[in-house]
Amino acid sequence: MSLAGHLLELRKRLYIAAAALVVASVGGWFVSDLVLDILNKPIELIVENQGRNAALNYTAITSSFDLKIQIAFTVGVIVSSPVWLYQIWAFLVPGLTRKELRYGLGFFLTAVPLFLAGCAAGWFVYPHIVELLTSFAPSESTSFINAKDYFDFILKLVLAVGVAFILPVFLVLLNFVGVLSARSIIKGWRIAILAIVLFTAIATPAADVFSMFLLAIPMVLLYLLAAGVAWLHDRRAQKRALDFDDVEAIA
């Protein structure tokens, strides 16, 4: 495919992904009130478990509307993930061989559940993170939490954990198609850790270092897991190559 053909294909895939995102975001608007009620539960737990006052503050007239838009968009990204992940895979299909196509299909079938599982994991742990971070305040104090900062922290955390679950799949896929060796993955661990720290610093809007490293540690472990899978694959491929050379030598 020519460069112009690739650009046309990219535009087509982007249009499809954008359309799916818009449709899913419209649906997310109708469930945004339910999501708001669920996200507000940790604030109620602060009052019950820590015995002190806590409340969300909407500091601007448009804050509540902006939050509903943000929640609708986040729900749209999660719900439409099978579509835009498939578009990523479909864009790579023209440049792959038959064997590599199987790897790409494996990526799609693995990435979608992992992304949803990552979002579910972030959704499961965020109440504990909120309760832990607010527990450092004195018992007699009152927490007036900015609603935008609070929801921004939670929604970005959910998406960031979802993305973190996908990144190792990309590394393994690049290794399986022969683009990236296990040695290169392991050798670049310093750059990878630096990139992970920068990513988590952007993904977690909270100013404390604890939140950043709380997300960075599992991402580093997933990176090491991907390096281990790539190492096993390279070792198996090297063994098959040696066996093939032995057979040719005998012949």
UniProtKB/TrEMBL annotation:
Lineage: superkingdom: Bacteria
Predominant subcellular localization, coarse grouping: membrane
UniProt-recorded Gene Ontology molecular function terms: proton motive force dependent protein transmembrane transporter activity
Residues that span the membrane, as ranges: 12-31, 71-93, 105-126, 153-177, 189-207, 213-232
Topology class, membrane: Multi-pass membrane protein
Gene Ontology biological process: intracellular protein transmembrane transport; protein transport by the Tat complex
Location within or outside the cell: Cell membrane; Membrane
The keyword Transmembrane is annotated on this UniProt entry: yes
InterPro entries membership: TatC
This protein's GO CC annotations: TAT protein transport complex
Name of a matching Pfam family: TatC
Keyword entries, A-Z: Cell membrane, Membrane, Protein transport, Translocation, Transmembrane, Transmembrane helix, Transport
Quaternary structure (record): The Tat system comprises two distinct complexes: a TatABC complex, containing multiple copies of TatA, TatB and TatC subunits, and a separate TatA complex, containing only TatA subunits. Substrates initially bind to the TatABC complex, which probably triggers association of the separate TatA complex to form the active translocon.
Function description: Part of the twin-arginine translocation (Tat) system that transports large folded proteins containing a characteristic twin-arginine motif in their signal peptide across membranes. Together with TatB, TatC is part of a receptor directly interacting with Tat signal peptides.
Similarity comment: family membership: Belongs to the TatC family.
Family matches, as NCBIfam families: tatC
Protein name (Swiss-Prot/TrEMBL): Sec-independent protein translocase protein TatC
Higher taxonomy: Bacteria, Bacillati, Actinomycetota, Actinomycetes, Micrococcales
Gene expressing this chain: tatC
